Automatic annotation (TrEMBL):
Domain of life: Bacteria
Residues annotated as transmembrane: 282-299, 353-375, 395-412, 424-447, 453-473, 512-530, 612-632, 644-664, 670-690
GO cellular component: plasma membrane
Annotated keywords: Cell inner membrane, Cell membrane, GTP-binding, Ion transport, Iron, Iron transport, Magnesium, Membrane, Metal-binding, Nucleotide-binding, Transmembrane, Transmembrane helix, Transport
Name of this chain's protein: Ferrous iron transport protein B
Family membership noted in the UniProt record: Belongs to the TRAFAC class TrmE-Era-EngA-EngB-Septin-like GTPase superfamily. FeoB GTPase (TC 9.A.8) family.
SUPFAM superfamilies (alphabetical): P-loop containing nucleoside triphosphate hydrolases
Residues involved in GTP 3 binding: 56-59
Length: 702
């Protein structure tokens, strides 16, 4: 047999495809319960055969070229010609999954079907599947798998390595349809490769615009094709694309009748019982709020704080006296001693001190994601989004962005509507990522240590900003139009796998530490230099430093927000490099030394609401340079990137001003200017949300 070099892994979203990819390759690709986890194709090598490369293609429901997932998968199967295709099929949703199976069979590529989640099917007891009959009906090998149990994949690996029978079977449809396809094959057989003749005939029958354009038919060929299609539509009394769809489902129905036995006594599963509560139209949102409150309470207020206090007080705080004493005994130059103690240990330590809280947050989110609850949140938010003419599909990137804005922005590729995709790119980074969590933990722990709602309020503030911005932007010419459709399967609830949780938490923790050792390290060195030297390169107090001079110039811009001094100003600007720098820069600029001294310095400088305003602005304003670069890559246009950055910063400024100045009004400390600023902010928000403006026609380039 010829040596196989590539295997394409295809399947519906939530079929267990990525879990199976990890099991076969030993990879650690992220596993999620929503479309878009695999935005691009990912590759790895089969553990049992290092020469075989496995390509994990995006989860998709079909090979129609309408979404980015479908296009990536279809192009790879047709253009890259993998030696073997492994189609992962969810045994609990056999009818829907087999639709993609038939389309893959139509491409003519060698195929193996991995019937996954068999353990779940057995537990439900609703039906049984005869694997031998299913394999006979499809004329391809069918192997039962449980992707979460790698030890049970030995038969699948052996089948992958074994020779497959030839020729490869195509699904056989209605005799009248087969006759039409045969006539089309006669017309196009000189234009396409022989092994893809069947697929091209079906695409021509469906009037696929990309295929029709690619084949560039002559007038005579086009006339013959039109006659064949008109005859078929007359015979079936339907459009050609619907004829193909119905033929596939008829074929699937015959296969199901042959291979599947359903039990008559239907019993509601535990997942269904839970969903009746957590997706209830009245209870869903309150439950979501309580769940996210619990996540942040455990991460920021209780368990995560215990670890952070230990790092700050015992590890980094315990080092300081001994390090200072050692440096003095060595007669180290004052500038070098200051750099080590205040710049490196203080600056980087102030960021790393939040690592336990970040790990706890991602552990909680990982549990919610792995058990299936986060998929329900996407469903619930889709229901909410549609009330405001927004697409629920935009919420998937938002969920992903809670880990990092960069993959969240990349996940917008799954949105078919270009307008909705661009809007989602602009709004995704409103959500608090792991870098912003350091600011959230700093502000909540320093200014509101006994208030458990401050930290989760940042999460909900991001969601509110997304919804309000979506309502406003949908009224503009750039984004007007119907929302993109959102179809999503709700996976069954299951216990999270410890290995998945461990990989997820450790990979994110590792990325955070690596960032602290590279970008934040360099930033702390630079910021310490700027805060301890003047423009004559003389070592001075921070109040006479270059950093203070530069920050003082810009500080008045932030005065209406409550933190118009140079410390918070330069921290906000440093956050453009990495949001963790907000914390490190404040620590360095105050020269506070220990974590307790740092907190005291902040409380002595800013009132509590000014601290909260600092949190809100850095949550919503322009993201870090890495995320901005990703936005530019996804937009493919500098103008759109600047629009996004400008809009994000404008929204952050407006809402922060409203919150801070509003707090002054409520507390009775407001000046006439404060009242005026609050009224202006409210009027702008009300106008943007409630005023119905006519939307002019716009060019298709948008």
């Amino acid at each position: 047999m010829a040596i196989r070099e590539t295997l394409a892994l295809v399947g519906n979203p939530n079929s267990g495809k990525t879990t199976l990819f990890n099991a076969l390759t030993g990879a650690k690709q992220h596993i999620g319960n929503w479309p878009g986890v695999t935005v691009e194709r990912k590759s790895g090598r089969l553990k049992a055969d290092n020469a075989l490369v496995i390509q994990d293609l995006p989860g998709t429901y079909s090979l129609s070229p309408y979404s980015s997932e479908e296009i990536v998968t279809r192009d790879f199967l047709l253009n890259d010609q993998p030696d073997l295709v492994l189609n992962v099929v969810d045994a609990t949703n056999l009818e829907r999954n087999l639709y993609l199976t038939l389309q893959v069979m139509e491409t003519g590529r060698p195929l193996i079907v991995a019937l996954n989640m068999m353990d779940v099917l057995v537990k439900t007891g609703h039906r049984t599947i005869n694997l031998k009959k299913l394999s006979y009906a499809l004329q391809v090998p069918v192997i039962a798998t449980t992707a979460t149990k790698p030890a049970a994949l030995q038969e699948l690996v052996q089948t992958i390595q074994a020779p497959l029978p030839k020729p490869y079977a195509f699904p056989e449809y209605d005799a009248r349809l087969e006759s039409a396809l045969t006539m089309l094959e006669d017309v196009i057989d000189q234009k396409v490769p022989a092994d893809r003749l069947r697929w091209y005939a079906i695409k021509v029958f469906e009037k696929d615009p990309q295929v029709v354009k690619q084949l560039a038919f002559s007038s005579d060929e086009q006339h013959q094709i039109n006659e064949i299609l008109r005859t078929a539509e007359h015979v079936f009394d339907d459009t050609t694309d619907s004829i193909i769809v119905n033929a596939r489902y008829d074929f699937i129905a015959r296969v199901i009748a042959m291979c599947v036995v359903d039990k008559d006594d239907f019993v509601m599963s535990m997942s269904d019982k839970i969903d009746r509560i957590v997706t209830d139209r009245y209870l869903a949102l309150p439950i979501f709020v309580l769940v996210m409150w619990a996540v942040y309470y455990l991460s920021i207020q209780t368990i995560g704080t215990i670890g952070s206090d230990y790092l700050n007080d015992t590890v980094f705080g315990g080092w300081l006296p001994s390090v200072v004493g050692t440096l003095k005994s060595w007669a180290v130059a004052p500038w070098l001693s200051g750099l080590i103690v205040d710049g490196l240990i203080g600056g980087i330590g102030s960021v790393l001190g939040f690592l336990p809280q970040i790990m706890m947050l991602f552990l909680c989110l990982g549990i919610l994601e792995d058990c299936g609850y986060m998929a329900r949140i996407a469903f619930v938010m889709d229901r909410l989004f549609h009330r405001f003419n927004l697409s629920g599909k935009s919420f998937i990137p938002i969920l992903i962005a809670t880990g990092c804005g960069v993959p969240g922005i990349m996940a917008t590729r799954t949105i078919e509507s270009e307008k909705d995709r661009r809007m989602s790119i602009m709004l995704t980074t409103f959500m608090p990522c792991s870098a912003k969590l350091t600011v959230i933990a700093l502000v909540s722990g320093t200014f509101f240590p006994s208030n458990s709602w401050v930290a989760p309020s940042a999460y909900f503030m991001g969601i509110i900003a997304v919804i309000c911005s979506g309502i406003f932007l949908k009224k503009t010419a750039l984004f007007a139009g119907p929302p993109a459709p959102f179809v999503m399967e709700l996976p069954a609830y299951h216990l999270p796998r410890l290995t998945n949780l461990y990989r997820s938490v450790m990979s994110r923790a590792r990325a955070f530490v690596q960032k602290a050792g590279t970008i934040i390290f360099l930033s702390c060195v630079l910021l310490w230099f700027l805060s301890n030297f003047n423009f004559g390169l003389q070592m001075v107090d921070e109040n006479d430093s270059m950093l203070r001079a530069l920050g003082t110039i810009i500080a008045p811009v932030f005065a209406p927000l409550g933190f118009g001094d140079w410390h918070a100003t330069v921290a906000t600007l440093a956050g453009l490099i990495a949001k963790e720098n907000c914390v490190g820069t404040l620590h360095i600029s105050f020269g506070a030394g220990s974590a307790s001294g740092f907190g005291q310095a902040l409380r002595a400088t800013y009132p509590a609401m000014a601290g909260y305003a600092f949190l809100v602005f850095n949550l919503l304003c322009a993201p870090c340079f890495a995320a901005i670069g990703t936005m530019y890559k996804e937009f493919g246009d500098a103008r759109w990137t600047w629009r996004a950055v400008g809009y994000q910063t404008g929204v952050a400024y407006l809402l922060t001003m409203l919150i801070y100045q509003g707090s002054l009004v409520v507390s009775g400390q407001a000046s006439v200017m404060s009242i005026g600023l609050v009224l202006v902010a409210i009027l702008l928000i009300v106008y943007g949300l409630l005023i119905k403006r006519p939307v002019p026609a716009i060019a298709s380039s948008y």
